[in-house]
Amino acid sequence: AVEDDIAGGRLVRVFADWTMPSGGIHAVYPPARFRPAKVRAFVDLLAAAERKRARRRDA
User: What is the pLDDT of residues 16-31, one digit of tens each?
Assistant: First the structure.
C-alpha cells in the first residue's frame, strides 16, 4: 500500500531487512446484511493489495 511512497522517497524503511510473516491477512466482520459499506471497501482494498503483492512475487 505504501510502495510508491517508499520508491518516491516520501517514506523511509526503518527496518529494511524485516518482512511480514507469511500466512496472509484475515478480515473478520459481521454477516453481509449488517456490514457497513466502509468495511466492504476496506476489505476490497486489502484484497487488491494482496493480489498486487502476489503478482509481483510470482513475476
Answer: 888 877 777 788 877 8
Which pLDDT band holds residue 41 (cuts at 50, 70, 90)? very high
- Return the closest-CA partner of residue 39 out of 28, 26, 50: 28
Integer CA distances (angstroms), 24 to 6, 9, 33, 36, 58, in order: 22, 27, 26, 23, 15
The domain ranges of the chain are 25-59
C-beta of residue 11 within 8 angstroms of C-beta of residue 2? yes
Question: Nearest-CA neighbor of 43 among 33, 56, 30?
Answer: 30
Q: Note the pTM of the prediction, 2 decimals.
A: 0.55
Q: How many CA atoms lie within 13 A of 34 on its CB side?
A: 4
